[in-house]
Amino acid sequence: MSITIRKGTAKDLTQVFELVKELAEYEKALHEVENSVERMTEDAFGKKPIFEFFVAEADGKIEGTAIFYYRYSTWKGKAIFLEDLVVRKAKRGAGIGKKLLDAIVQEAKDVDARQVMWQVLDWNEPAINFYKKLGANLDEEWINCKLELKQIQEYKMG
């Protein structure tokens, strides 16, 4: 199987969104997916793009994706946040994830980013082992925080 890694285009988003849903199903959270191909298209290619992505393609089919965006560390400077790295279940273990992560690291080098960051669920042993094998630091010190849509809407200002 010959895999080509390339930057994603708007035409790729239907297949990429299928991968997003496959990941959500793997994480037993498909019911939490509120996004859509249309929203992703606007968010990636609209007036103010907020994310980019790579795809891994074989025989015209997208077998994996790495979705990322730029963030800023006041201590380090420019950084890349890898939001999702997804490979179709049937293609896992074939080196596609490594090739996608290679593309992210190359992007970081190309734009002089000082960090590449991502999250992994504490129960996702295959992913944890993959990242450890690559030499990544798994930080147990920081706690993730977030406000969901309802909390944003109900947030008390002042």
Automatic annotation (TrEMBL):
Q: Which CDD domains match?
A: NAT_SF
Q: A Pfam family this protein belongs to? A: Acetyltransf_1
Coiled-coil portions: 16-43
User: What does the UniProt keyword field contain?
Assistant: Acyltransferase, Coiled coil, Transferase
Residues that span the membrane, as ranges = none
Family from the record = Belongs to the acetyltransferase family.
Q: Which GO MF terms are attached to this record?
A: N-acetyltransferase activity
Q: Which domain of life is it from?
A: Bacteria
All copies of domain N-acetyltransferase, residue ranges? 3-158
PROSITE patterns annotated for this entry?
GNAT
Query: InterPro entries from the xrefs?
Result: Acyl_CoA_acyltransferase (IPR016181), Diverse_Substrate_AcTransf (IPR051016), GNAT_dom (IPR000182)
The protein in question is named GNAT family acetyltransferase
Species of origin? Roseivirga seohaensis subsp. aquiponti
